[in-house]
Amino acid sequence: MTLKKNDYWYTPLEIWHAVHAFLGKDVFDPCPINPNFDGLEIFWDKNCYINPPYSKETKRKFIEKAKIAFGPGCRFIWTLNYANSQDLKEIHSRASAVCIPHKRIRFIPGHPDLGDGKSPKYDNIIVLWGHGEDDFEKVFSKIGKVYRTKG
Fold it and tell me: Which of 16, 31, 96, 151 minimizes the number of CB atoms within 10 Å of its CB?
């Protein structure tokens, strides 16, 4: 997989702590920034945290892979730009809950050309696919306003 420099953003610890509090310590991250690892080529576990690369074509590939990998008993948490895009609409259409953070998430830049960790250009949204809306709300309400989208 070829990544562009704007794909190199690491999830801050505040978000990782919430993900672990909700999913437990055994969370699969199919999108780590590691040139020796291609999350598109391997099996995904039932509990995934997905902060996909930001370049449009690579993000699209992760969405397609997630649609195939997601099944009964799975819980996937996404962190995405909250921009009005077809990709966001597609991910949101499968959501059971969403969290709109109180402030912009300050991602950790992983590429030297990306600066000093300034806030991203867009706000973010955290999306849950799967069950556990009550626990998701308890954990993620510390980060932002949680809305249930189904049932």
Answer: 151
Low-confidence ranges of the chain (pLDDT < 50): 151
How far apart are alpha carbons 70 and 45 in whole angstroms? 9
φ/ψ (deg, to 5) at 103: -145, 165
Question: How far apart, in whole angstroms, are the C-alpha atoms of residue 52 and residue 30?
Answer: 8
Q: How far is CA 17 from CA 14, 36, 49, in A?
A: 5, 25, 12
Q: pLDDT value at position 119?
A: 59
pTM of the model: 0.88
Write the CA distances from 81 to 32, 42, 72, integer angstroms. Answer: 17, 25, 26
Distance from the Cα of residue 136 to its chain's centroid: 14
Domain ranges of the chain: 5-148
Token match 């996909």: residue? 52
